[in-house]
Write the structure tokens for this entry.
Amino acid sequence: MRGLPKAELHIHIEGTLEPSLQFALARKHGIQLPYTIEELMQKRRDFANLQEFLDLYYAGCDVLRTEEDFYALCEEYLQRAVRDGVKYAEIFFDPQTHTTRGISFSTIITGLSRAIEAYRDTIEAKLILSFLRHLSEESALEIVEQARPYAHLIWGVGLDSGELGNPARKFKRAYEAAEKAGLCGPEGNNKTAHGGEEGDPSYVIEALVILHARRIDHGVRSLEDPYLLQVLRDNRIPLTVCPLSNHKLKVVERFLHGKDPVWLLHEAGLCISVNSDDPAYFGDYVAGTMIGSLRAKPLPEDEVRALAVTLARNSFQSAFMSEDKRNHYLALLDAYIAA
């Protein structure tokens, strides 16, 4: 599983901030954290819901202050991704988390981009600018303007943070402005959005219809709407599923009757990939996350292996890339399976 070539499409770079790096950066900047490293690790073991996680997540970002901090953060993720067999990654970054506390957009994107360039011979990575949906659309529009000079470093846009009460329609103008600013890839189509994690299926529908998202992040509550499932299935609209995150944030317990989302969505005939979301908070990176889901159902080994290959293939099929590049990565996967 760790050697299986794969893409990771739902990874928040701020969510890869391990306690060890958080404390190292706190010491560097003379920040007194309100807990010991052991207490922080305990806090990260269990969350009641998405908002409880987000509160800890945003507080942790305060240690990220310089270009070198963002470089170190991205470097640690890329090293782990390579060990997990990730050949291609589309990485979310949340600039508003940092610009609202006085960090320049240039500092953020330069640090992340330098790390991506340093590792380009071992992993291909792209940056997806993600708007924070709990903030105003005006804030998102301001970020579009700050990002405009760096459009060549940005591969697409997304939408994350607290879902409930913050529907996709709130960000229609921000997505349109991002496309005009060249932040949505060479053809202007690299748009994704979180939806159907804690929000009902209408959050997914709005992301598709109003934001013209080509991919949905999470999307597990789509299972509640048979018509939406048919649309997702018939149009092969990808879902980037994060099962460990769904378990940790009680989504499985509250909405899926305790059943693993990977198997449920696969059996519904959808195009899904498995991703780690915020691995430093949820306990494992992409290979471990995949292994956990594959073990969630007692099945013969050949069936489990077949699903693993399907998930890896779907990850490349779901990525924002040209057909030539996609065929290159699928050929790597086929060669690995043949070997």
